[in-house]
Structure to design on (113 residues):
C-alpha cells in the first residue's frame, strides 16, 4: 500500500495508529491480520478524519477567540475569515471518503509508467 501511494511506511503506521484510536479503522495483528475500515464510507467525512488527526480548521485566532484581538469591535476581516472557515468546515463535513476512493486498478494504471 505504501509503495503504491508513494508514502513512507513509518508515516502510514502512525496515521493508521491514530485512526485506530478514533475507531475509524480496525487493526488485527497476526498471520491473518490487517487493517479494515470500521465505518461506512458513505457516512465517514473528511472532517471526521481530519478531526481525528487533530487538524486545526481555524484560519485565524480572531475567529475562534475574538477576545484576543483588540480590533475585533471594528474589524471586518474577522467576519470574512469566519465565513471562510465555516465554508471549509461545511465542505469537509459534506465530503465523504466514498468520493475519494480509487481501486487497485486505478493505482496500477499510474504505476505502470
Amino acid at each position: 500500500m505504501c509503495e503504491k501511494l508513494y508514502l513512507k511506511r513509518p508515516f502510514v503506521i502512525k496515521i493508521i495508529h491514530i485512526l485506530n484510536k478514533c475507531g475509524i479503522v480496525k487493526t488485527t495483528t497476526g498471520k491473518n491480520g490487517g487493517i479494515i475500515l470500521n465505518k461506512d464510507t458513505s457516512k465517514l467525512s473528511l472532517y471526521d478524519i481530519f478531526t481525528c488527526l487533530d487538524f486545526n480548521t481555524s484560519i485565524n485566532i480572531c475567529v475562534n477567540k475574538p477576545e484576543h484581538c483588540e480590533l475585533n469591535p471594528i474589524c471586518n476581516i474577522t467576519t470574512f475569515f469566519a465565513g471562510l472557515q465555516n465554508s471549509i468546515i461545511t465542505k469537509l463535513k459534506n465530503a465523504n471518503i466514498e468520493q475519494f476512493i480509487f481501486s487497485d486498478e486505478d493505482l496500477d494504471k499510474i504505476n505502470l509508467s
Notes: Residues 77-94 form the longest helix (18 residues). The mean pLDDT is 87.
